[in-house]
Amino acid sequence: MHNNRLYCLMITFLILLLSVSGFQCQKQDNMAWWREARFGLFIHWGLYAIPAGEWDGVTSYAEWIRTNAQIPVDEYDKFVDQFNPVNYDAEAWVRMAKDAGMKYITITSKHHDGFCLFDSEYTDYDVMSTPFKRDILKELADACHKAGIKICWYHSIMDWHHPDYLPRRSWETNRSSEDADLERYIAHMKNQLEELVTNYGDIGVLWFDGEWEETWTPELGWDLYHYLKKMDPDLIINNRVGKGRSGMAGLTKEGEYAGDFGTPEQEIPATGLPNLDWETCMTMNDHWGWNKIDKNWKSTEDLLRKLADIASKGGNFLLNVGPKPDGTFPQESIDRLAAIGDWMDVNGESIYGTKASPFKYLEWGRCTQKSVWSGTRLYLHVFNWPMDGKLVIPGIYNKADNAHLLGDPETALDVTRQEDALIISMPDAALDPINTVVVLDVKGKPDIGNRPDIHAEQNLFMDELTVEIKSDREDIQIRYTTDGMPVTAKSPVYTAPITLTSSVKVKARCFRDEKPVSGTAESFFEKVAPLKSIQARKVNPGIRYKYYHGNWDALPNFNKLKSEKSGVTKSITVSIREQVDYYGIVFEGFIRVPTTGMYRFYTESDDGSCLLIDGRHIVENDGIHGMEEQGGLIPLEAGFHNIRVEFFERNGGDDLIVSLKGPDMPKQTLTKDMLFH
Ligand code: H79
Question: Does residue 16 sit within a domain?
Fold first, then answer.
C-alpha cells in the first residue's frame, strides 16, 4: 500500500514535470513547425495576372507591370472588372502543394499594386469588387486547414494605389501627394492585417515586402512587429517587416532588427548561418506573377537539387507559382510540383525536420542530419553517382552503425573505414538520377574533421592582438604554432586566447590521442604602423563636394566628368542632390581622428560607393544595390587624414551613410566635428 502510493505520487510528479516542460517548449518555440516544414509554396496572384506580362507590345512584365510599364492608376483599375477566375479551386491548389510535399502556402493578400485578394472592410479595392466576388483567401485558408497545411500571407508594405501611401512613383506626376498621410496609411494597413490575422483561423507566417522605401523606418518595423505578436504570439514574421534585410541575399544585418527569419530572394546563401533561420524564395521560371511568354522553366532536377542544397544549409525553400487569370496553375508548374512530389514521397524524411550538414563540402552532393536515439542519422544526397561504386565520406571520425538507401531500406550497404573516411559500397546504378539519398547512421554527435576556427577581431593590428582558436568537437585538443612550422603532436596545446605582438602566421589543428583528426587551419596576422597624419595648417569645418548627373551601373571615373555643381557641406549626405535618380557625388576633405589606432570605416549606400583614406582604397561598396554596408580597416595616427567618398545612384531608393569605429570609439556616423576642408 505504502509503496503503491509512493509510486502514484512519483508518476503524478513525472507527468506534471513533463507537461510543464512540454508547455514551455511550445511557448518558446513558435518556429518549430516552420523548421520542421522546410518546403512551402509561394503564390503570386492578383490583377496583374490578366495582362499576363504584356503592355503596349512589351512582354517582359509581371507583378510589377503597373510601375514598370507606367500604367496610370485609372487604366490599371480596369482590370478589376475583368478579374473573374472561374476555374479557381482552392482545394485543388492545396492538393497540388501537399502532393509536392509542401507544408505551407504563402499567398499575396496584397502585392505592391495594392489590390486585395480578400474581403476587406477597409477598402473596395478588393476581390469583392470584381465579378468573381468570392473571398479567395478564405477559401484557400479553409482548404489549407482541412488538409493540415499552414496558410501564410504575403503583404506588401509599399502600396502604389492607396492615396495615403508615400512616396509616389517618380513617373506618376498626375497623382497628387498633397493630402497623403503616411500615418493614416499605416493605420489602414494595421486594420487590414488585423482582418488577416483574426478572420481566417490559424495563420502561420506574415511575409512582408516593399520595406526598402525611405518612408519605412526600423521603428515602424518594430511597431508593426509588436502589434502583430500581441495579436498572435505564435505568428512568424519575416525580416522585411523592418529594415534588417541585407540586399537580395536577404539575411538579417548585424544589430537589432525586427523579424524572425531572413529572406534571400532568388538566391541560396553560399553557406548556412548558425543560429539564423532563413528561407530562400524563388520563381520556377523568371517571373513571380503569370507571364504568358516566359518559358524559362527550371528543370525538376534543378529544383530538387536546390531543395536539398537549401536543407543542407539549414534553410527553407519557398517555391513560387504564378496562377493564370482563370484560376489555374500554369501546366509547367503543375508538372514540376508533381515530379517533386514523386521524389518527396520516397525521400521527404531527408528534408523535413533536418538540420544543416556538418560537412563544409562534399564533392558528390549534399548532407542533412537528424539526431536519433543511437546517435546521428546522416542523409547523404548523392547527385553524382560514384563510378567505382564507392561513396567516400571524407573526414568523419564517428563509428558507423549501418547504411541503406532511403528508397530501399531492406538492403544494407557495406560501410568500411579508410583512415579518416567512411566508404559506402553502392549499387551499380542510382535509384534516382536526380538525387538518391543514402541513410548513414553513426554513433554520437557528428565528429567531422573540420579545421578549427582561428578568430581575432581583425587581421591587422598595431600593438598587440588577441587570437582565439575554437572547435565545436568533443574530446579533442587543439595544438598550434606561431612560427610557421607544421602543427604536430609536440606543438603547444591551446588552452587560452593567445596575444600576438608581432606579425605571425598562426596554424592550428585538432588532435585526439596524440593523432591529428583535422586539417590545419592557417591565418596571417600583420602588425602595421599607422599612417602618418597630415600637417593641415588652415582647415575649415565642412567637406568639399562635387555633384554630377549621369546614368551608371557602377562608379564612373568622376575625375573625367564635368560636375553640375560643387561646394562645401557640413556632413556627408545625399541631401545636396538636385534629383533623386541618376546622380553621383564625390566628397573630399580631411577627417580628424582623436587617437592613434586601428579604425574601421563603413559606407552603407544605395546604390554604389567607395571610400579612400590618404589615397588608399579602404571601403569597396560599388554596384547597383539596395542599402548595403561594407567596411574596411586602416591604422591611423591621431590628427588629420585625407578622406574621399564616391557615391552614385541610378534609380529607386537612394541614401549614403558613412560611419567609423575606432579605439575607444563605438561605431558612429561621421559627425560635423570630424570633417574639414
Ligand atoms: O514579390 C516578389 C517581387 O515582386 C518582390 N519580391 C518578390 C518576393 C520584389 N520587389 N522588388 N524586387 C522584388 C526587386 C527589388 C529590388 C530592389 Fe532592393 C529594391 C533593389 C533595390 C530596392 C532588394 C532590396 C535589393 C536591395 C534592396
Answer: no
501: CATH: 2.60.40
Q: Is 218 in the same domain as 85?
A: yes
Residue 575 is classified by DSSP as: G
Same domain? 663 vs 637? yes
State the closest ligand 1 atom to the C-alpha of 263, by its place in the atom list counted from 1. Answer: 8
Cβ–Cβ under 8 Å, residues 534 and 590: yes
CA-CA distance, 397 to 380, in Å (whole number)?
A: 16
Q: Is 625 in the pocket of ligand 1 (CB under 6 A)?
A: yes
| Residue predicted with more confidence, 535 or 32 | 32
Atom of ligand 1 nearest to the CA of 281: 8
List for the chain the helix, strand, coil content (%; round to 5). Answer: 20, 35, 45
Q: Quick one: 562 and 584 in the same domain?
A: yes
Q: Which residue, among 284, 289, 288, has the nearest Cα to 303 in the 3D structure?
A: 284
Q: What is the pLDDT of residues 600-641, one digit of tens each?
A: 999 999 999 999 999 999 999 999 988 889 999 999 999 999
Instruction: Give the structural domain span for 551.
Output: 543-676
What is the average pLDDT score of the chain? Answer: 94
Which residue's alpha carbon is nearest to atom 26 within ligand 1? 626
Ligand 1 in contact with 167 (CB < 6 A)?
no
**Cis peptide bond N-terminal to 167, omega within 30:** yes
**pLDDT for res 363:** 96
Q: What distance in angstroms lies between residue 665's CA and the mean position of ligand 1's atoms?
A: 35
In whole angstroms, what is the distance from residue 324 CA to residue 330 CA? Answer: 7
Residue pLDDT, tens place only, 342-365: 999 999 999 999 999 999 999 999
Of 252 and 67, more confident: 67
**Cβ contact 212:167 at 8 Å:** no
Same domain, 210 and 321: yes
Looking at the structure of the chain, the number of domains it has is 4
Q: In what order do the strands lie in the sheet with 39-43?
A: 236-237, 203-209, 150-156, 104-110, 39-43, 316-321, 279-282
Whether 170 and 280 share a structural domain: yes
pLDDT at 252: 81
Judge if the beta carbon of residue 652 lies within 6 A of ligand 1.
yes
* Largest distance between two CA atoms of the chain: 100
User: Which residues, in sequence order, are bridge partners of residue 516?
Assistant: 511
Distance from C-alpha of 128 to C-alpha of 14, rounded to nearest angstrom: 54
Residue 69 CA to ligand 1 center (angstroms) comes to 17
The whole-number average pLDDT for the span 480-506 is: 97
What distance in Å separates the CA atoms of residue 53 and residue 296, rounded to the nearest whole number?
Answer: 14
User: Alpha-carbon Rg of the chain, whole angstroms?
Assistant: 29
Going by C-beta distance under 8 Å and a sequence separation of 6 or more, which residues neighbour residue 78? none
**Residue at grid coordinates 542530419:** 369
Q: Cell triple for residue 342?
A: 514523386
Domain membership flag for residue 359: no
**pLDDT > 70: percent of the chain:** 96
CATH of the domain at 125: 3.20.20.80
Residue 151 lies in a domain: yes
Residues 130-155 have a mean pLDDT of 98
